[in-house]
Amino acid sequence: MAELVTGEAVALDIRVARLASRGCALLLDLLFQLILLNLAVYVTGLTALVADDAWTVGLSLVSVVAVLVGYPCAFETLSRGRTLGKMALRIRVVADDGGPIRFRQALVRALAGFIEFWTLYGAPALITSFCNRRGKRLGDLFAGTIVIQERIPSGRLGPVAVMPPQLAWWARSLEISMLSDELAMTARQYLSRFWELLPEVRDSLGQRIAAQVVDVISPPPPPGVRPEILLSAVLAERRQREEWRLAQRRARRLRRTGQAGWAQAPAPGTAPVPGPVPVPAMAMAGTGQPPPPGWQGPPAGPQPQPGPHPAGPYPTGPYPTGSYPAGPYPAGPYPTGAYPTGGHPAGGRPAGPYPGGPYPPAPYPVQGMPPAPYPNGGVHPGR
Question: pTM for the whole thing?
Fold first, then answer.
């Protein structure tokens, strides 16, 4: 890092290009120049077939000067301090005051580079770069320029404002409706250029912007919070709330248009709430479509409850097979019917349970018993 004073007397910390990146950029430029030089020599060599030797020598000299001196001079002037090699390594030549390089400065650097690299094989440039604290070579010293590393775009490093964990609880309760877009943009620019400012400038500017932000928000921040952390928390919360509003608006638009599969936008700091999933009507109608997940079908109707049977007399059998509720059954008389085989004592009936039927005809001593079958395990009433 080196300090650079702009034309407005503002001191900035800049990242000076290192010797390795400058050497790689130089090798790429030299390779491209050699390709152009071979093409130029081949074209001028063809002129010897139709012109005399003086034209051939003159065109060869012009081609060599145009490639070795004109190439870096033209590229650095038109592209504001960059050649093809510098573009690949993301470095740039600027004036000592931070302004763009001019044609005069580019021409001086190109002429000095011809002596340093093509005549003395880069030895003066290497020695001078090691001795100068800014890494300047002879061409930079003569032209008043410096080679710096270009700033990496902030979009590749993610968002500028990130929520600090220690201020997340405070940011959720903020009232930031009075925070204007201009003040928020000022705070964002300060955070994006935070590491480019000198420490004293960085602290004073951050305190001034933080004081303006604290005046329009509530509740006040906890004591002892640094300005950059405070601004980062406020901007991160503001961005999260704006994203939530956009998601809510999108969900309402989807509901109005009747699109399926919409989901409700989650509130800041909460998990997303899935929206209702429409059930296909054909699945409900039993047309072969699979029912939706979790569908239990229509509710079951009321089920018959077992209870005591009414008093007789009962109709003549046979009775239908099935499961009958256990007794007690009401007293007879029962209608006549078929009786189980076997002898019964006079005036009595066999104790239940009765076996499953059908029962063969048999005499019964006192009164008739209805035909079988009877439920297994049951006791015939009145027996």
Answer: 0.43
